[in-house]
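Now for a concrete sample entry.
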Amino acid sequence: MRYFLPWLFFTTCFHFSVTAQEKLDHMKLASKFLTILNSQDMKQLDAFVVNNFSPDALSRWDGAGKDRFTGYSINQAMFHGHLDVISSKLNNSDNQIRYVGQLYSMNTDMQYEMVINFNHAQARAITGWYIRENPQTAPNSTPLNEAQVVSKLTTYSKKLANNGIFSGTILLAKGEHVLFTAAHGLASHRYDVKNHLDTKFQIGSMNKMFTSVAILQLVEQNRLSLDDPLTKFVNKDLLGKGDFKKIKIRHLLTHTSGISGMTGFEEIQTKVRTLQHIRPLLKSIDTTFEPASQWQYSSTGMVLLGYVIEAVSGQRYFDYINDNIYHKANMLNSGSFDLDVPIKNTARNYWFSVETGAITENLMFQSVKGDPAGGGYSTVRDLHKFALALQQNKLLSKDLTLAAVTAKPALNAPNWGYGFSISNNEGNTIVGHNGAHLGMTAQLNIYQDKGYILVVLGNYQASARPVVAKANKLIERL
C-alpha cells in the first residue's frame, strides 16, 4: 500500500500538470499582455515576449523577432497611453486561435481592434499581434456639412498634438478648394524646428503611385504593353529561380506577380543611389506562386518596374519621375533626395527605440536614397497637386487614369488598381496609397464619389493613422 499511495500522488500530479497545460487560458494571457502594455514597462514587455511568444515568432527577421515584437509593443503602448477593453472574444478558425478585443485608446480617443494570434502549443503560443483603428459611428448620427467636418478635424488634430502623438501636416480639399490645413509638432527635435505646411516629409510607399503612373504613361505612348512579360525588359539571367516569363507588367502593378522579396538590401542601403546599385540583389528574387493566382504586396515588384522604366525610356528612373510626374503636376517640393545632402526644410523621423531607451531619430534604418518602391519626400500641398493632376488627366489619358484607379478582381486584386489601393465602400470609394516606415506614416485619400482629397504626413510613430481614420468617418457623413 505504501507503494500505491506515492504512485497515486505522482499520477494525479502528472495528470493535473498535463490538464493545466492543455487548458492554456488564452483570454487570461491576453489580459496579462494588455496590463503589461498599459504599464509601459519595457523590461516587463521584453520578458513577456521571451516567455510567451513562439520560437518561430522570435526567429523571424533573421533572429531579430524578440526585439521587433518588443519594439512594436512599447511603441504602441506609448502611443496609446492607456487601452481599456470594451469587449473581447476568442475565435477558433482556420487552425488558429485568435483573441479579438475592441479597445478604447486614451490618447487617440478612438476605438481600436486588437488581435493576438496563437498556435496550439501548450506554452509560448503567441505567434504575433497587431492593433488597428476601428472607429465607430454613433447610431443615428446626423449628416455633417463641410464647416462641421473642418471644426471636428481641427479639434481632433489639436487633441492628438497636445497628447504628444501627432507630429506632421494635414490638408483636406474639395477638388481644388482647400478646406483645412494644419501643421503640428517638430520637424527636428535636435534643433527645435517646427513642422510647416511646406515641410518635406518622407512618404514611404506612396512613391509606388508615381512608379505606376510612369509605367502607364509609357503604355499610353505605345512603348510597352500591360501584357508584356517582365523578361522583355529585365534579363531573366539577372533574376533568381522560377519562370519569370509568365509575369506581365500588369501583375507587377497589382501585386499579383508571385515574386519573393529581395534579400540583402539592408546591408547595402547606405550606398544605394541608383538602380544599378541594387542590380546584384536581383538574383535573390524567386517566384513563389503563379501570377494572378493570389495577391501579395510586393515592394520588390515596384523596384523591377523601375528597371522597366529605365529600359523603355532611356532615362534614369529618378530623372524620368522628375520630368514626367513632379514637373507635370507642378510638385516643386518633391523628390527622392540623398539623405546625406542637406536638403532644406525636411522633417526627420522619430520613434521610441528599444536600443536607446529614448525617442530616437531614424538615421540608421533607411536607405540613403529612395527607390521606385518608396523612400521619397513630398509635402501635403504637392500631393494635393498630384491628386488633381491625376483627376484632371494631366498625367494620363482619361481611360488609363480610370484603369489605374479601378480594382482588378480578375487578377485576384479586389482592393487594388494599377499602383493604387481601392476601398470600395458604397457611395464612398476611396483610392490612394499609404506609406509607413520606422518613425513615419503618410496617406493620400481621394474620395471618388464625394470629391474630397485628404493628405496626412507624419514624422512620429503612427501619427497619420488616427487622423486618417477620423477623417474617413467624418467624410462618410458629408
Remarks:
- The first strand starts at residue 83 and ends at 93.
- Residues 142 and 477 are 7 Å apart (CA to CA).
- Residues 1-20 have pLDDT under 50 and may be disordered.
